[in-house]
Amino acid sequence: MTTKGFHVLDDKSLREYIKTTPSLSSKLGDEVDKYQVKEVGDGNLNFVYIVTSPSGSIVVKQAIPYVRCIGESWPMTKERSYFEATALKRQHGLSPKHVPEVYHFDRTMSVIGMRYIEPPHIILRKGLIAGVEYPLLAEHMSEFMANTLFYTSLLYLTTTEHKSAVAEFCANMELCRLTEQVVFSDPYKIAEFNRWTTPYLDSDAETVRNDNILKLEVAELKSKFCEKAQALIHGDLHTGSVMVTHESTQVIDPEFAFYGPMGFDIGAFIGNLFLAYFSQDGHADHGNDRKTYKAWIIDTVADTWNLFYKKFTALWDIHKDGPGEAYLSEIYNNTELRELVKQKYMSDLFHDSLGFAAAKMIRRIVGVAHVEDFESIVDLAKRADCERRALDFAKMLMKKRRNFNTIAEVISAAQ
Ligand code: ADP
Ligand code: SR1
Ligand code: MG
């Protein structure tokens, strides 16, 4: 495929591309015949190559003008690559320990060259399926979310800075529209690509499509997603967008980034941890009932929210007299008032996060894109049991989210 300077890379043309791109060839050397090229894209949208030479390794990611997991019948702008590169650079600046460095970006070719996140890093979702504990995960993810969300919000930015950043990312509208469709619309109607574990969940999927209260709630969440330009969000912060070891946590793949509600990121991460939690019974065997592991996942959900709260409000305290124009220090000029404002803001954010967590769970069970946590459970009846428990919890969470005051209460409900 060739359109005005764009062509889809293959093994041979990628080598040539790197050779003529100094920011990449400087990492690998000029001897392209000695490169090893491996396509590892297991995501839904793009092609990802790991290129290794005797001098080093890099990752090259190329967006193609359609949704890879569906095919050319679902066109999708390759401009998403621009927003991914821009968000990666911004997020790396704000959370350098948890976001890979971008070495190169080519808008015409929709190509990003970035740091290779080396083994033993694996995709978090795979670690959760294997039952591996990551003791620093909550610490690292709360740090990533606190930094990237706080510093791009009006708690830190002037309205002038914020508006121009909002305007730039508004152009990522096709990716936003994809989320609007597959998260907030399709699961609630008959749609071409919807699927579920049939026949076991046929009536559960139908119940979702006929649940008036659920539809009322998802409309409110969709409106927040479309209208609440609160901070630069990653936009797809599920457990497949995080690579981990015991010591390190790296957040990749922010092509859905835009100025949206902070709770969409927090909810995506927590919702996907809950999906992992509900899938564990399907991975249990005689040697391991996964009970201890389920407790670890639940503790990680609690720690993620509680540490996020602590870190985010600490940044707010540090910068309370800073440039942020949401709460001017001349008006919010006493401790009692600032405390009131903080409690209101964090309580709203908590309820947004729970609502989005629920929406992200529901879409992975009755929508187009499913998760390996459940898909890898071969026994379909067992898989459906796990999915049904997750779906019932998510429906309750979406409807009753405002009744929860602490993450501990949410966890009790899940258990
Ligand atoms: P998509 O946008 O299609 O979802 P991802 O960005 O999620 O693609 O990447 C797909 C896969 O490529 C990831 O699951 C991961 O295994 C691998 N990958 C992506 N970026 C890197 C990186 N910087 N270092 C190592 N592996 C990576
Ligand atoms: C067709 S939906 C594909 C999904 O994959 C991405 O990771 C996003 O979550 C998107 O919704
Ligand atoms: Mg991805």
Query: What is the structural class?
Result: alpha+beta
Report the major sheet.
5 strands, antiparallel
Could you report the average pLDDT, rounded to the nearest whole number? 97
The SSE string, one letter per element, is EEHHEEEEEHEEEHHHHHHEEEEHHHHHH
Gyration radius over CA: 22 Å
Give, in spatial order, the strands making up the sheet with the most strands. Answer: 3-4-5-9-8
What is the share of helical residues?
A: 40-55%
CATH names the topology of the largest domain as Aminoglycoside 3'-phosphotransferase, Chain: A, domain 2
Binned strand content: 5-15%
Number of strands: 14
- Oligomeric status of the shown chains? single chain
How many domains in all? 2
The CATH homology group name of the largest domain: Aminoglycoside phosphotransferase (APH), C-terminal lobe
Ligand identities: adenosine-5'-diphosphate, 5-S-methyl-5-thio-alpha-D-ribofuranose, magnesium ion
Tally of separate helices: 15
The top-level CATH class of the largest domain is Alpha Beta
- At CATH's second level, what is the architecture of the largest domain? Alpha-Beta Complex
* Distance linking N and C termini: 50 Å
Structural account:
Helices cover 52% and strands 13% of the residues. It is built from 15 helices and 14 strands. The strands form five sheets. Strands 3-4-5-9-8 form a five-stranded antiparallel sheet, sandwiched between helices. Helix 7 (173-185) runs antiparallel to helix 9 (212-227). It is globular and about 60 Å long. It starts with a strand and ends with a helix. The mean pLDDT is 97. The structure holds adenosine-5'-diphosphate, 5-S-methyl-5-thio-alpha-D-ribofuranose and magnesium ion.
